[in-house]
Amino acid sequence: MRFLVGRRALLQSAAATALFGIPLHQAKRALACDAGLPSCDLYKTDPERYWSLLRRLWLLAPDRINLNCGALGCTPIPVLRATVEHLLFAEEYREPDNPWFGYAENARIRATREALARYLNCKLDELALTRNATEGNNVIANGLDIPLGDEVLLTDQEHPGARCAWEQKAARFGIKINVIKLPRPPASNEEMVKLFEDALTERTRVILFSHITWQTGLVLPAKEICALANRRGILTHVDGAHGPGQIKVDLADLGCDFYASNGHKWLMAPKGSGMLFVREPHLERLWAHTVAEDWRNYGLKAYRFSNVGTSNLSVIVGFKAALDFVNAIGREHIYARIHEQARKVRDGLRQLPQIRMLNASTDAHHAGLVSFTTAKGDLGRVAAECDQRRIRIRYWPDEARIRVSTHVFTHDPEINAFLDAVARGLRG
Q: What is the 3-state secondary structure (H, E, C) of 33-65?
């Protein structure tokens, strides 16, 4: 599969690249690349060669190593091209419908929603397109009516993009927030579910938890937690920012009430693409977060939450191209590659006695995020080794940990370069 869109002579000319401020060599690579996906047969016979050839489809600088897809993903050339070409096409006003996103649904928006609904196994009417997981999380938290004094349960590893929405609601309306501390690492799914169960009270109305935590990369037993909540009549709000694209997400099977996520992390879609799932019985229960003319047009179902005013339809077109790209490679192949490369990082770090792993050791509890600290507080020196060499390594740092993330384009030499940098930093 080649993922070629109709290229314009305009974009292939030196005059055009000068007009748009794009270096000619970069424009040729990004917009005139004919490289397609390697063959499926090659994946079966020589998977390493397959992934090596596939890497050509990203604009990755030779003096950078990106181990930070958990913050922002890398978009492949076919998806970039689809996005940019639509951006220019829309300016010609040849679109049969309004060439933007944020008001009435058009054919391109519908195609993206349909592809995403198939990918996540949910009903089209339950799915809204958003700009990111934070926006979706805010729709959920601000849209639910929670009586004064009732409670929301969350974990100590929630991202501010979800946690703060509930903290603001507590400050405004007097609801109570309870927090459980997740083990680092946990022993089993049963241990984690028991923590949630023991923290529930008669006034718990909502459980917020991450499908995969952003701090430690812990994969929570989401289906079991949702089943627990359902038995108690408690709503479940899942922050799925790190789920789709990194692990299999089947919303019909998961059993959650609300799920918010991004396209621009693990799904490799353009920046500013996201999604919100609202289970059908709750569609009319949820207030709109951003209000436009159709804020109470309940016939729109979940699309009512996509009415946010003029936004970029080209990003939505790119989102659809990213889903096509993922499906062409094969979802299971992607999940396995992400996990395989993360395991190499974990195994390498475990050879260093000063390293203390923060995420789970059990395969079922981790995917592509690896989080660690050091026994003697040497993170600063490790960070310096990653930042100050000729080849700079990008990762997620803070005072307590370093978090790295692997994807299908992460190759063994990059992993080895990172492990070497960690070892040098530890030596001082």
A: CCCCCCCHHHHHHCHHHHHHHHHHHCCCCCCEE
Full 3-state SS string of the chain:
CCCCCCCCHHHHCHHHHHHHCCCHHHHHHHHCCCCCCCCHHHHHHCHHHHHHHHHHHCCCCCCEEECCCCCCCCCCHHHHHHHHHHHHHHHCCCCCCCCCECCCCCHHHHHHHHHHHHHHCCCHHHEEEECCHHHHHHHHHHHCCCCCCCEEEEECCCCHHHHHHHHHHHHHHCCEEEEECCCCCCCCHHHHHHHHHHHCCCCEEEEEEECECCCCCEECCHHHHHHHHHHCCCEEEEECCCCECCECCCHHHHCCCEEEEECCCCCCCCCCCEEEEECHHHCCCCCCCCCCCCCCCHHHHHHHHHCCCCECHHHHHHHHHHHHHHHHHCHHHHHHHHHHHHHHHHHHHHCCCCEEECCCCCHHHECCEEEEEECCCCHHHHHHHHHCCCCEEECEECCCCEEEECCCCCCHHHHHHHHHHHHHHHHC
How far CA 332 is from CA of 32, 411, 422, in Å, comes to 29, 18, 31
By CB atoms closer than 10 A (0-12, 13-18, 19+), residue 281 is: exposed
Low-confidence ranges of the chain (pLDDT < 70): 1-35, 361
d(CA 7, CA 30): 11
Q: Is 98 left (phi over 0), alpha (psi -120 to 50) or beta?
A: beta
| The pLDDT value given to residue 4 | 41
Instruction: Enter the pTM of the model.
Output: 0.92
Which pLDDT score is estimated for 380?
Answer: 82
Domain ranges of the chain: 107-322
Q: What is the CATH number of domain 107-322?
A: 3.40.640.10
Instruction: Answer for the pair 103, 292: CB distance below 8 angstroms, yes or no.
Output: yes
